[in-house]
Amino acid sequence: MQRWVMHLDMDAFYAAVEQRDDPSLRGRPVVVGARPGGRGVVATCSYEARRFGIRSAMPIAEAYRRCPDAVYLRPRMAHYAAVSRRIRRELDGISPLVEAVSIDEACVDVSGLERLFGPPAAIGALAKRRIRDACGLTASVGIGPNRLIAKLASEYRKPDGLTVVAPDQVQAFLDPQPVAVLRGVGARTLPRLERLGIRSVADLRRRPIAELQRHLGPRLAAALHAQARGIGPSDVVPDTPRKSISKETTFAQDQTDPALLHARLRQLAGEVAHTARAGGLAGGVVTLKVRYAGFVTHSRQRRLAAPTDSERVLLAEAWRLFEHGGLPQAPVRLIGLGLAALTEPQLGPQSGPQPHQRDLFEAADAPRRDNRLAQTLDAVNARFGDGVLGFGLAAGAVQPAEAGAIPEDRSRGRSPDAADPAPDDAAGR
């Protein structure tokens, strides 16, 4: 049986969802990410914005310089995740072997499905049609004998493309393409290849691997040489467990006020804890990330006595790392909080949260009460939008917006996500 892997990539996913939800944005340049005037980056942008040279991971100031008339929106990560789950259900209806690569990408093993749906091109068209009918969005689909070829094929005719590369067409498909399409060819490697006169995949394929090893090192040379011949993994592993959850935010001006930093960590702890609970997860390792001027970044970790999904615990541990982790006493540009070593929550008697060492004056039922409160907050935010309700600040604490942090946008249910959100698609797609 011929092995066929389908790679599905949503087109400008975040921006496309915003244009779908608000018809007045259709046909206009839309940038999702930080706000102009801040120091974050572009998460993604519509194809109308890309005509101005805007791309994912570009500093928001540069994006605004290129197109000040674009519509700049904050990410709604919970909403995008819900749409992503809807897309996943459509793919599950085609094949039992679906692997979510990211929020807007998936690999699907469609081997042997020709008897149900027709040839690979018909399967790809079916996936695109189901997603369009269910979600009102377009996807680019590539199908090939392995994941590498499927991924490159999905990028070949974006947006709304469909490309099938049969095994006997692999080399003809790869050879004319620029060498930059290969994985591992980035800003540092590309100039080295160009100095060797290697500009296309065919140029790379024809070079002796010993020559490539002298200039690139053995591991990178072997990986690129294999890709140039169309060799890549084909296994699709469904339901890969999530390894970590993290949130971060960039301040409009570097900050030194402990009250403001504590307030922002409280907000991040709430977002991480909510994501963990929504996925039925708890974590045993808390990570604090702090970035200073010049992009100097430090991180600190602490392993917990027991896994947690409580924002109170996350905040306490993160703040302890901030105060006693030996970090530089300097203005903070970015602060982030992460939760790793994820597992299912461990329950105590009567399905309550796992017992923990209580504070001397803590009520006996405090863990169970906090658990009920967290569930209530999750339910309210799920109905009315992320961030509309959360644990309050301590009396006298400074609100982040008062001290120059990038403020939260409550319009249209925007959530206070990080000012440096992770791009939802690679630059240049």
CATH architecture of the domain at 244-398: 2-Layer Sandwich
Distance between the termini: 32 Å
CATH topology assignment of the domain at 244-398: Dna Ligase, domain 1
What is the CATH class of the domain at 244-398?
Alpha Beta
**Alpha carbon gyration radius:** 24 Å
Helix content: 25-40%
**Beta-strand residue fraction:** 15-25%
Mean pLDDT: 84
Question: Can you describe what's shown?
Answer:
Residues 348-358 and 393-429 have low confidence and may be disordered. 37% of the residues lie in helices and 19% in strands. Helix 7 links the parallel strand 7 (139-144) and strand 8. By secondary structure, it is of the alpha+beta class.
Explain the layout of strands and helices.
Blueprint: E1 5-10, H1 13-21, E2 30-33, E3 42-45, H2 47-50, H3 60-66, E4 71-73, H4 77-92, E5 98-102, E6 105-109, H5 114-117, H6 120-135, E7 139-144, H7 147-156, E8 162-164, H8 170-174, H9 189-195, H10 201-206, H11 209-216, H12 218-228, E9 244-255, H13 258-278, E10 282-292, E11 297-308, H14 311-324, E12 332-343, H15 366-384
Parallel strand pairs: 2-4, 7-8
Antiparallel strand pairs: 1-6, 1-7, 2-3, 5-6, 9-12, 10-11, 10-12
Helix pairs in contact: 4-6, 11-12, 13-14
Task: Jot down its keywords.
alpha+beta; DNA polymerase, domain 1; Dna Ligase, domain 1; five-stranded mixed β-sheet; disordered C terminus
